[in-house]
Amino acid sequence: MRLQYIIAKLIEIVFIFFIILTVVFFLFRLSPGDPISKVVDPMLTPEDMKHLISQMGLDKPLWEQYVIYLKNFVLGNFGVSFHYGEPVSQIIKARLGWTILLFTTATALAAVVGVFLGKVAAWNKGSRMDNLMSISALVCYTLFIPWFALLLLWILGFKFQLFPLGGVLSPELWVGNSSPLAKIADLIHHMVLPMLTLFIINLGSYLLLMRSSMLSVLREDYIITARAKGLCEKTIRDKHAAKNAALPVITSVGLSLAFSINGGALTEQIFTWPGIGRELIFAVSNNDYPLAQACFLLIALVVLVANLVVDLLYAYLDPRITY
Fold first, then answer.
1. pTM of the full predicted structure?
2. Average pLDDT per block of 10 residues along the chain, 323 residues long
3. Which residues, including other chains, have CB under 8 Å from residue 23's CB and lie 6 or more apart?
4. CA 214 from chain center: how many Å?
5. Between the CA of residue 246 and those of 123, 225, 232, 250, 321, what are the distances in Å?
6. Superfamily assignment of 93-283 in CATH?
């Protein structure tokens, strides 16, 4: 793999990220809404209001705000949230871990199961098993996330009371002197419903993608050659066909993990999961410029880096690919 390719891709990432940063900055400030009215006491005097606007830096010309933002960004200062009054970096740090925990776990499980089932379905093309898996995957893939999440919440959370209706922790366990094992079990108990929602939604796409890719690979010449050599069917399926067929799935999983950094806003909102996605909805709704900008830029950066990692991983898994 050529070092020049990696350097070129890094330069490209920096350039695209700068464009995204610029667009996001101006987009928020040109959108309708006033962040001041969301956070201040309506009883404030005009003088106090003017002082507050000056503290937030909103009294300066737009170009000057942009220059200041670029300088602060380079120094790692993402500003102070208008609503919370805390540094944006601290807010993101507190929320990011919950998002990574939930969405990485759900995506990884869905990918593993989806690749396995897709491989089996393709190998048994036309059978009842294949038809059942394909139809089930299509149903999962087309599910409307808010409807499905609310359905699980109503049935398993409200009707049967098997799982909590929201949140991540039970205060009585975490405030008291409960054992670490009990706390971990409590966290998993709260994770089940949101993770099950994401698992089922993602499973369908991975299964269908793996099945389609596997069917294409099975028509390749080297599969015919492997059969002619007398290799057993399991070896041909798992070591020759599945490895190459999994490449498109790797791309999908990589990008899914990258986009999941936004927390799947609707899922987090429904299950009151305190992640980045839920915070992003709040920041946009309240015109909290610094917090919303940082969330969007974090998503953009992770997606750009994920694209580079997927490209490099392709070359590692398939020697026929060169850059």
1. 0.84
2. 80 94 88 64 65 71 89 88 87 91 91 93 92 94 91 94 90 78 91 94 92 89 82 82 82 74 77 89 84 88 84 72 66
3. none
4. 26
5. 14, 20, 20, 6, 14
6. MetI-like (1.10.3720.10)
